[in-house]
């Protein structure tokens, strides 16, 4: 790692010789810096588990990292200051959703996603591949791209690798994902092979699109009508992660990994997992495939979030996770605690003055009782979703902090064993 | 006003000779102080408009006051720190709702409503009369009370004046409302007369119930399982407001006012307004009835909230208002601004980087653009309801602050004229 990269000062290729400070002109003119890439540094290992830091221009992401999901440019029920307060270092937003509404061009016009949603830390955007697979009532794949029907208004849309790059660049993403086909489960060997080959072709086109985008300078008008809003949009190109597919076939995972690594991405993701296959099979694929990925790049297990799965995947050397589990479960009244999982609606909490989790330092546990949380949940109060989400995200982010600490102290195996027992416990 | 009453030190009748500090024993034992009453002080007048302060044991309420509505022990979409930050000095909770769920006895067991919901300022509770009238699918009134069917589970319930007092006492309300019949509109003279007479009888029973409740001491166990939660429940009896009915018949309003005033309450409310009658008729009734109420007690116009109505009512000498308008409108995307009312969903805000209201200092306007607020609203994001509610409550509470300032500066007529023009303006 080069000195100074923590501050995102190195790795600018344009303009040469100028520091980021001076590249931002007095009137809001700044230069597109074409080849800024994130850097990744491993600071400790414990078995295959890795402790590291991803340095982005928007800040550092400590790994293993949990990425809260903000599908529609908002992590459901949270505001951006709360996310920051919880220690979230990166959030995920969905290409598919933002393309359909409000549209990436609108967000670009508004100064990018960071400014739009008032989140100034790193943002990872997915490729939309998974949402096309899971949300669209119609999906037709051909070599060129995917035709799908919007789940919002039924309109027909066509996504290509190039458009997906265009969208993620317009959003101002810090970490963009290559467009892939999320291979379903079950799928025949033949289907899986064709699918991974398509993913490779698309990954190549994504990479080429990003390379081809010429250096340019962009003038961003400081919009007079919005004097109070910070204008922090910068226009460096996103870094780009490739996605390894191959279903549950080890040799196909290997083939996909080799083809994708060959293209040289800034990081690598495992896709097409947690799509219905048995857990043991997922673990096998993760255990087998993760070591095939480059040591010196971040490794991302997409859409995974059950903490038992996280422990397994970190054991295998995975660095990044995203999942709606803490936020969605919160809204459904399922809360994570140091003693196990709690269903807050249960009768026994009716007159329980204790905090949700006596060992928790979050705002919810410090200020409200189980009885009140149950009452809010039964009444479908918005505050219920807020307090539950805040707690669950705190639990997740804290779990990851403790896990990083364990790796640093060469105590990951103990941590894994101890936490696995608790996580299997459905307390109430 | 007696010196020291700001701190709630005077007006304790029990235990004589002991200060509130020493009445709270080391082991959480404290005495029920039977006859603490709120005090009301007028600090300025401008025409009939009054500037004042209601002193309660939980804090001062500056009047004219707006009372945010927290139906189910939560102001929808807000947490209690936000309410405090917005400058809310009192909130309203609903007897009807809390009686049905979770039940007043549970809340009492949990240490009262303040502790339950973690709001330590004054709480006003309504009598449930209006909700029985508006929410229940079945309602049968007789001399003794009201039989109604729960809108939650269809169960049949029977509310009497005594039970309504019991509930509000159990909740630990600071300002309780007498049980009344909210006379519908239209109603014949005969119905209205019978109804107001029933309201008077019930008011008498409420008053007697509160009087009869004997001095007693209560031991509140400091619950070991909730060490982190503040134990601020005090058990003084609520102060009690009477409600004047009489529909749109001036002579009946006069009769009701006289009968209710005769019973000597801590404050007086006008009920049975804004139930479908024309605005002009409501204004007439308010103009006519308000001056009949005692000068030295707070006057409360129940359920009123449209700010044009507020201006008229303050002109007539009303001091307190509650309404779901700012919170409900917020959730429906209608936002108040210094330039008029704004429907945030409109197409023209799609790429509008400006704040909702350039003259507003609230968190929403300081941090988010119209384009983002529109986007959140269209996506039904919980954050939309939060940011909109925060803004609308800020607008309301700020409107009341400016109105109080205007009264203090003998400029209420100007304020009224100027604001009326803006409030009639549907900007977009």
Q: Please name the fourth-level CATH homologous superfamily of the largest domain in chain A.
A: Queuine tRNA-ribosyltransferase-like
User: Poorly predicted ranges of chain A (pLDDT <50, ≥5 residues)?
Assistant: 1-35, 214-234
Terminal Cα span of chain A: 48 Å
| Tally of structural domains of chain A | 2
Helical segment tally of chain A? 16
- Within the CATH hierarchy, at the fold level, what is the topology of the largest domain in chain A? TIM Barrel
The CATH architecture name of the largest domain in chain A reads Alpha-Beta Barrel
Proportion of residues in helical segments of chain A: 25-40%
Q: Taking all residues together, what is the mean pLDDT of chain A?
A: 88
Main beta sheet strand tally, sense and closure of chain A: 8 strands, parallel
User: How many E-type strands of chain A?
Assistant: 18
Largest interface: A-B, 47 and 47 residues
Percent of residues in β-strands of chain A: 15-25%
**Structural class, from secondary structure content of chain A?**
alpha/beta
The CATH class of the largest domain in chain A, by name, is Alpha Beta
Shape of chain A: globular
The largest sheet of chain A has its strands arranged as 5-16-15-14-13-11-7-6
Keywords:
homodimer, 428 residues, alpha/beta, TIM Barrel, 2 domains, eight-stranded parallel beta sheet, three-stranded antiparallel beta sheet, 17% strand, globular, disordered N terminus
How would you explain this protein's 3D organization?
The structure is a homodimer of 428-residue chains. Chain A has 428 residues and is an alpha/beta fold. The first copy, chain A, has two domains: 29-323, TIM Barrel, CATH 3.20.20; 333-427, no CATH class. In chain A, 38% of the residues lie in helices and 17% in strands. The longest helix of chain A is centred in the last third of the chain and has 27 residues, at 382-408. Chain A has helices at 20-23, 80-86, 95-100, 104-109, 113-117, 129-135, 161-171, 189-212, 250-262, 279-289, 307-316, 325-331, 363-367, 370-378, 382-408, 412-423; strands at 29-31, 39-46, 49-56, 59-63, 65-67, 91-93, 123-125, 139-141, 146-149, 156-159, 175-177, 217-219, 239-244, 267-270, 299-301, 320-322, 334-337, 340-343. Chain A has an eight-stranded parallel beta sheet. At the A-B interface, α13, α14 and α15 of A face α13, α14 and α15 of B.
């Amino acid at each position: 790692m080069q000195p100074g990269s923590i501050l995102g000062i190195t790795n600018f290729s344009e303009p040469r010789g100028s520091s980021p400070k001076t590249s931002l002109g007095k009137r809001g003119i700044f230069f597109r810096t074409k080849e800024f890439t994130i850097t990744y540094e491993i600071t400790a290992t414990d078995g295959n588990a890795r402790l590291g830091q991803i340095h982005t221009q928007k800040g550092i992401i400590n790994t293993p990292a949990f990425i809260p999901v903000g599908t529609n440019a908002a992590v459901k029920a949270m505001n951006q200051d709360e996310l920051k307060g919880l220690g979230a270092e990166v959030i995920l937003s969905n290409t598919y959703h933002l393309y359909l509404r409000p549209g990436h061009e609108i967000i670009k016009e508004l100064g990018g996603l960071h400014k739009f949603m008032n989140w100034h830390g790193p943002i990872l955007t997915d490729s939309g591949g998974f949402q096309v697979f899971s949300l669209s009532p119609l999906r037709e794949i051909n070599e060129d791209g995917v035709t799908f029907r919007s789940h919002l208004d039924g309109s027909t849309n066509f996504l290509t690798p190039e458009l997906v790059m265009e969208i993620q660049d317009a959003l101002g993403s810090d970490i963009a994902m290559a467009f892939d086909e999320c291979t379903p489960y079950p799928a025949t060997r033949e289907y899986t092979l064709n699918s991974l080959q398509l993913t490779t072709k698309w990954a190549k086109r994504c990479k080429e699109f990003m390379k081809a985008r010429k250096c340019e300078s962009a003038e961003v008008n400081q919009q007079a009508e919005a004097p109070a809003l910070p204008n922090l949009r910068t226009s460096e190109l996103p870094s780009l992660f490739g996605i390894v597919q191959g279903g549950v076939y080890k040799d196909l995972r290997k083939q996909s990994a080799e083809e994708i690594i060959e293209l040289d991405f800034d990081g690598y993701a495992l896709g097409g997992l947690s799509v219905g296959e048995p857990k043991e099979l997922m673990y096998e694929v993760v255990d087998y495939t993760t070591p095939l990925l480059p040591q010196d790049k971040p490794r991302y297990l997409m859409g995974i979030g059950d903490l038992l799965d996280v422990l397994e995947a970190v054991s295998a050397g995975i660095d990044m996770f995203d999942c709606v589990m803490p936020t969605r479960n919160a809204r459904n009244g399922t809360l994570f605690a140091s003693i196990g999982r709690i269903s807050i609606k249960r009768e026994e909490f009716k007159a329980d003055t204790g905090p949700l989790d006596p060992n928790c330092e979050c705002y919810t546990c410090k200020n409200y009782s189980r009885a009140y949380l149950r009452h809010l949940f039964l009444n479908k109060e918005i505050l219920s979703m807020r307090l539950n989400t805040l707690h669950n995200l705190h639990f997740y982010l804290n779990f990851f902090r403790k896990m990083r600490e364990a790796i640093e102290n060469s105590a990951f195996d103990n941590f894994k064993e101890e936490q696995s027992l608790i996580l299997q416990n459905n307390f109430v």
